Amino acid sequence: MGYVMRCSGRHQIVLAILAAGVFGLSSVPLELQRRIVDDAVKSGATRTILWLAAAYAGVALLEQGLKLALNIYRSWVSEDAVRSLRKTLLAAGHSDSAETGTHAAMVVAEAEPIGGFVGMAISKPLLQAGILVNVIGYMAFLEPWTLVLSAGFLLPQLMFVPPLQHAINRRAGKRIRTIRRVGGDIVETGVPEEERIERVFRLNMSIYRIKFSMNLGMNFMHYLAAAVALGVGGVLAVEHRIDVGTVVAVVSGLGKLNDPWGDLVNWGRELSVDSVKYRLFADALGG
User: Fold this and answer.
1) What is the pLDDT of residue 103?
2) Helix 28-42, helix 123-142: angle, nearest 10
């Protein structure tokens, strides 16, 4: 993160402002959905429903416009960092064949993910955490019991996500070192050792198994929370203790929690893996 701020500190401020604009709108569509459903069921006020639907479309358009600006600016910041890293490598030069192979791997493969992370380093967690807080706060305002539901959705994942991510990090570091040796082999002899290629394959497959198992657990917790919301909310609606629109808003809110939570976990995954890559990158350049 120190490198992120050194190479793009001013841009991170603008990205943070755009991210705040996006997550500030995140709960507005939920409230509009609730009002549209309630007005349709209770009063049948056609004119009000149409105005609310138009407002819903307007808010969605504004939110997507801000996302477009955020994504384009974020991509520019990332690509600028990748370009800077590659220029630094080219300026450093190399002294022997093994080092030539290492630098080739770094220029072609390693600079891309490190620089790519720079654009999302601050804006992405700010955006996703802001959406989580905004939506959970809105659902709790509608129905306090949804706080328990949200905790049941998020907290169990904190038990299995960190250790699985730590396992991915270890394998990612080994993979980078092995690929560098493959690059050195190609420069020195023209042919890499077959065992090293097999080792890269095994490490990649191990990373995929852990990553997709983590995703399975996260998705299951989302659908379990949605099932509880539908069950509890449906019973309360039948007993006329809450409105149907509230049930719709809560279920939609859980859907809005799943994506930002997954993106936040992915950001943490990329931060930890790219931190390993950056340390190896800096070591290869002598600090």
Assistant:
1) 64
2) 30
Smallest CA-to-CA distance from 114 within 286, 287, 271, 283 is with 271
How far is it, in rounded angstroms, from Cα 58 to Cα 67? Answer: 14
Q: What is the pLDDT at residue 51?
A: 84
Q: What is the mean pLDDT of each run of 10 residues along the chain (287 residues)?
A: 84 91 84 76 72 86 90 89 79 58 61 81 90 85 78 80 84 80 70 78 89 84 80 80 78 79 83 79 68
For 155-193, where are the alpha helices, taking DSSP H only? 157-189
Q: What is the CATH number of domain 2-284?
A: 1.20.1560.10
Q: Which two tokens stand for residue 179?
A: 């690929």
Amino acid letter, 15: L
- Give the C-alpha separation, 24 to 133, whole Å: 10
Return the HEC string of 187-251.
HHHCCCCHHHHHHHHHHHHHHHHHHHHHHHHHHHHHHHHHHHHHHHHHHHHHCCCCCHHHHHHHH
Segments making up each domain of the chain, as ranges: 2-284
Please tell me the predicted confidence (pLDDT) of residue 17. Answer: 92
Spatial contact of 104 and 192, defined as CB atoms under 8 Å apart: no
Q: Mention every residue, 6+ apart, whose C-beta is less than 8 A from residue 236.
A: 242, 247
